[in-house]
Amino acid sequence: MATCDGSEARAALERSVLRRVPPLLTDLYQFTMAYAYWRAGRHNEPAVFELFFRDNPFGGGFSLFAGLSDCLLFLQNFAFSDDDVEYLRSVLPAGTDAAFFSYLKELDCSAVSVSAVPEGSVVFARVPLLEVCGPLAVVQLLETSLLCLVNYASLVCSNAARFRLAAGPRRRLMEMGLRRAQGPDGGLTASRYTYIGGFDLTSNALAGRLFGIPVAGTMAHSYVTSFSSLEEVWPQTLVPCGGGGPIDFICLVKGWLGRVCQLLGSKTSLVREGELAAFLSYAIAYPQNFLPVIDSYSVSCSGLLCFCAVALALCELQYQPLGVRLDSGDLCRQSLEVRRVFKECNKQFSVPQFESLIIVGTNSISEQSLAELNKKENEIDVVGVGTHLVTCTRQPSLGCVYKLIEVRGRPRMKMSEDPEKSTLPGRKSVYRLLDTDGRPQMDLICLSEEAAPKAGVSLTCFPLGLTKTLQTVTPAQVTSLRLDVFTCGQMLTDGLECCGLL
Amino acid sequence: MATCDGSEARAALERSVLRRVPPLLTDLYQFTMAYAYWRAGRHNEPAVFELFFRDNPFGGGFSLFAGLSDCLLFLQNFAFSDDDVEYLRSVLPAGTDAAFFSYLKELDCSAVSVSAVPEGSVVFARVPLLEVCGPLAVVQLLETSLLCLVNYASLVCSNAARFRLAAGPRRRLMEMGLRRAQGPDGGLTASRYTYIGGFDLTSNALAGRLFGIPVAGTMAHSYVTSFSSLEEVWPQTLVPCGGGGPIDFICLVKGWLGRVCQLLGSKTSLVREGELAAFLSYAIAYPQNFLPVIDSYSVSCSGLLCFCAVALALCELQYQPLGVRLDSGDLCRQSLEVRRVFKECNKQFSVPQFESLIIVGTNSISEQSLAELNKKENEIDVVGVGTHLVTCTRQPSLGCVYKLIEVRGRPRMKMSEDPEKSTLPGRKSVYRLLDTDGRPQMDLICLSEEAAPKAGVSLTCFPLGLTKTLQTVTPAQVTSLRLDVFTCGQMLTDGLECCGLL
Description:
Two copies of one chain form a homodimer.
Chain A: H1 8-18, H2 28-39, E1 46-53, E2 63-64, H3 68-76, H4 82-91, H5 98-106, E3 113-116, E4 122-123, E5 130-135, H6 136-141, H7 143-167, E6 172-175, H8 183-196, E7 201-202, H9 205-211, H10 221-225, E8 237-238, E9 247-248, H11 249-264, H12 273-285, H13 299-316, E10 323-326, H14 331-349, E11 358-361, H15 367-375, E12 382-385, H16 387-390, E13 400-407, E14 410-411, E15 428-434, E16 440-447, E17 459-461, E18 471-473, E19 477-480, E20 483-487, E21 490-491
Helix pairs in contact in A: 3-7, 4-5, 7-8, 7-15, 11-13, 12-13, 13-14
């Protein structure tokens, strides 16, 4: 997927500016801790943190891991400005040694290394997705920003994958949640990672420009209701697709409207003149992109009739109308009615173009309503999803955590008053074991000093959390789930290779 | 609230850069509609949209309106870059007239006027909060961005107000949701608007720098678990607050630990040496900012004992320890136990400083758990809230809409297949009527051509949605709810005056 020619470098620049995460965007306690490490002379001790989540989201069995490319960009640009440091001087407790601020000014991630699961991978609870090694104070300071970049990206990506599964492989899915996201950047993040999670399209134009995601959309109700009479239609003519002189399009459409109303037994007097004017005007502007929203007043009494009249006129001039959008009421029932009318029009007026018209449905679609929609008879080809997708209504946070597992080569562990909050100490390798058909059997977490499992050799392991239940497995293939992605301040990948995005 | 001296102008600049919303961050259909308006010569027709929400969030009776200052910044900077326009050229349907792209390049908000409810106001469902007037194509293009800027800001601000009400006026509230927000900007927005909604503190350092919000925080579990032995403590001495020679602080604390364990009948052998080392080290670094998290292993067997030992040693050197943080388990029960121990220490060791120690509770606090916490006996002084605050778990979107109400002086209306989605046509004035005690009686929506209500004069009106129920009211005072905030491309206010924020 590429942005328009010639502007790719500028899009990359704008991406990096718009998505720049200042290192001060973190919790204040990272600085008080960093100071305490520094004061004790421990700031450069080699330390390792790992990032994981404790439960798969949405009560499901998996998650997708996302946000890596943003993390790598953050690490590469990690540096405090003089203003940042002056601000910290003003809010850290009195008595903070001035030399600490000089130390902060020099900090970067040149001594930090990261291994990570590739962007967009299917992952499971409690598996370390990101391992961050480096000087204790530096890797401590990274905590909040990394969590912030991974948590929502992974959550919304996983949510998108669930919508994809609920929709089935055939139906196209469009993300349109910008107006309900957590502000501008939340919206951009949602567009980017729902595409990785399996959506086909976005309404978000900036996401299209910056990330090369296919964009779509035609009109809102406000466009329709802005018209009140046919006098507002201008120009009133349309040149046929194959060429020739301009045709009086209003006159042509009026003729078709009469025939459609007769065919369907509808009253032309109930047809909203403003709606007809809006459709006419849009079709004259974009004869090859005619896909109106048809529920501004009444689908059956006005919107559908106006659509058919304009679409039949377009067909007469050899244009291909695209379809309709339904945005309220019972989408399944209406889609059946709309499809029936399309077929009847083709039967009566011989317009085979009407067989390929698409029906778009958009009305507070949730994963559950999408699954229910699949159980009912319906004719919806494209589903647009906003609120429930981007806000992840069923579970609006993933809950990734970033835990210290090793300092100076010694494993570290947290116990906590809640047993499930205890951590697994020590550095770990994670292997994905595959069977002879290449299907995943399990993800195996080992201490990194343990030997890697071998293909064809059986091994015995404990399912996580069940220390008394042994399981034996013989993998046909063994892959390492995490890859080195950042070493000595440099990105080894942009994190997005695996999913074909920029 | 002011940021640190001298850097305020730079903070303002950074705010505007970080929070810049490119006008391309909108739905593609705004452009196809703008083109159809332009093609029909209607793009400069005077039009009016209004922004409102249909239901109060969280099943409650009110909302706070927020996001205005971001909207004004957006309007003032509204302009498409050449790259934006080139991108649109590549994605809009073939046949789009080239002159339209020249038109887009010239667009700004110099002909747009906005009236709005002040930032942070208490508002109600279906009341027009923002009225946007200007050329039809321009005010259409603004839709998605304005909704994106108002929706989450108002939602999270309202959520904060509900936490404030649940917490009662005495308890202090700290926002700490950055890691669970929808990415960096979502986190910054949450910090900003939860402060307006009634929170006292944030953990978000950047929000502190950019918006002057008081910041707080001391340590995480990783800091505690990074220590394993007293050998890691350095320096090992502390100079008394009042001056004098350095005291062997480890030795002093060890003495106090023995006395505390004896007092409480605890075993020193169960005390985690690493936890004691972590607290010691932090106290030496920040003797006036000692507020450790005490549940990294076990509050009663280790964390609380370590705290008391270090805090008693600090008191002996005339420092004032601050308190403790509890982050897991039953917060109420633990807070009672902690307070009891503090009182016992004071009784036994005569440390009146222990009477003013604070207890901070942070463990997946929701509005409901906060309300329940209030019903139980507890000793929690400060509550830190993250996930449930910033993701607004109970209702993660507000659902503001932006509807066309007038074109060329003629009222416009949408009917829809869902009756509750119908709009109220025409421009409106909104008045807040107050009684003789200055308490709000009702918000009155009138057509703008209707005469304003007068103080002392009774009036009759219909409660919204109930066209057959008349209500009579005599206001003692009448105020206009919306103010002019943007005229001819210029902000008349920065939107934040009312709440004392930058």
